Amino acid sequence: MDGNYAFVGLGAMGFAMAGNIRKKMSSKSTLYIYDVHRPSCERFVSEYNGAGPIEISQSVKDAASDSKVVISIVPTADNVRQVYLDQQSGLIAAPADADRLILECSTIDSASTRKVGEALRSSGHGHYVDSPVSGGVPAAEAGTLSFMIGSKGPSEEDTAEIMAARINDVLVMMGQPKKFFWCGKLGAGLAAKISNNYISCTFLLVIAEAMAMGIRNGIEPKLLQDVIHNSSGQSFMGDHVNPVPGVVPHAPSSNNWRLGFKTQMMIKDIGLGVDAAKQVGIQPTMAEAAIEVWKKAAEDPRCVDRDGSSIWLHINDIRDE
Ligand code: NAD
User: Fold this and answer.
1) What is the position in ligand 1's atom list of the atom closest to the CA of 265?
2) Which of 37, 67, 87, 166 is least enclosed by beta carbons within 10 angstroms?
3) Which listed residue (61, 152, 193, 268) is catalytic?
4) What pTM was estimated for this model as a whole?
5) What is the sign of the dihedral through the CA atoms of 76, 77, 79 and 80?
6) Which residues contact 232 (CB under 8 A, 6 or more apart)?
7) How confident is the model over 109-127, as pLDDT tens digits?
8) What's the half-sphere exposure (Cβ side, CA atoms, 13 Å) at 306?
């Protein structure tokens, strides 16, 4: 899609996603970038300078003012509210442009995204879509992310197809169309994402405990993973984020726990699952048990700011790392 783009949040995910946008958008258009951590912006410029114009903005307002597309990926719902609704520095302070497409990719609760999206749509600041992602940093780097999209407002049946085509044109720069899931109304993308993460955050702990148990019972780690991979315990998390160092060469555990998805953020995501389940009358038994362990890991110096698979060090009480 032609025109300038703004990208907000250049963290583990956003840095690679914005890099793919810069490489694939028109080389004549400008990519405005903004992150509260300015060194991330400077590192981005030095890495992608050759791909086309990049401007570091002083605020989201500045980044969005002359942009037809705005993409954001920041940690929490509070951060999303600040990015969009801050009266001085947020997108809401930029000139109105109802044609602006806004893709919000963070993992937050559906109610918060609906409130932000409705505020922006009703003030004429753009068409806000929740489009959380899955696949982690490797898929962000490879441009093969999956997206769960919540787009439709109550009176948008007639424009839905045009809007879907515009959304698709942008997402295809960061992800794989066969993994774009059109979930329905605003907030529905996040409802799907939260269900998925209920599983992945719980699984990672389950895998760590099961692998530790098997290894302590004398099974060689790679053989144990091979057994599980070819049996009913097989999972994406076991195959790609296996917490046992050396078992899966590309996993964070085999690469000094490189991020990845921070241990502290596990609490956020699993907490979103606990709340979402309770809101619809489902008792989140598994997540409530898992979150207690994640809370301890999030305060364990062996796990803080490392990939969540470092839970391995915590549950095995490994002290010499
Ligand atoms: P991160 O902490 O690595 O990066 C977040 C970035 O946002 C940081 O650079 C931070 O400085 C910036 N930021 C925070 N508040 C901001 C604000 N108000 N304005 C501008 N920038 C701001 O986090 P991440 O791992 O990239 O995750 C981001 C989101 O994506 C989270 O909601 C997470 O749950 C979700 N997610 C992460 C992964 C993953 O594997 N890391 C996978 C899928 C989804």
Assistant:
1) 34
2) 87
3) 193
4) 0.93
5) positive
6) none
7) 999 999 999 999 999 999 9
8) 25
| CATH number, span 5-185 | 3.40.50.720
- Within the chain, which residue ranges are assigned CATH 1.10.1040.10? 191-315
- Any idea what DSSP says for residue 51? G
Tokens at 12, concatenated: 């583990």
Per-residue pLDDT of 252-266, as tens digits, reads 999 999 888 999 999
Q: Is the model's pLDDT at 158 over the cut of 50?
A: no
CATH 3.40.50.720 in the chain is located at 5-185
Cα separation, 38 vs 223, whole angstroms: 45
Structure tokens that stand for 160 in this block: 């839905």
State the distance from the centre of ligand 1 to the C-alpha of 76, rounded, in angstroms: 8
Q: Does domain 191-315 have CATH number 3.40.50.800?
A: no
Q: Is the CB of 38 under 6 A from ligand 1?
A: no
Query: How many CB atoms are located within 10 Å of the residue 65 CB?
Result: 17
Pick from 32, 74, 105, 272 the residue to mutate for probing ligand 1's pocket: most ligand atoms within 8 Å of its CB. Answer: 74
Measured from the Cβ of residue 132, the count of other Cβ atoms closer than 10 Å reads 26
**Does the beta carbon of 133 sit less than 6 angstroms from any atom of ligand 1?**
yes
As a whole number of angstroms, the distance between CA 315 and CA 311 comes to: 6
Ligand 1 centroid to residue 107 C-alpha, Å:
9
Report the candidate in 316, 309, 275 with the shortest Cα–Cα distance to residue 294: 309
- Please state the rounded mean pLDDT for residues 161-181: 93
71 lines ligand 1 (CB under 6 A): no
Q: Prior bond to 260 cis, omega within 30?
A: yes
Q: Which helix (H) or strand (E) holds 160?
A: helix 160-171
Question: What separation in Å is there between the alpha carbon of 263 and the centre of ligand 1?
Answer: 13
The CB of 89 under 6 Å from ligand 1? The reply is: no
Q: Examine the residue annotation and report whether 193 is marked as an active-site residue of this protein.
A: yes
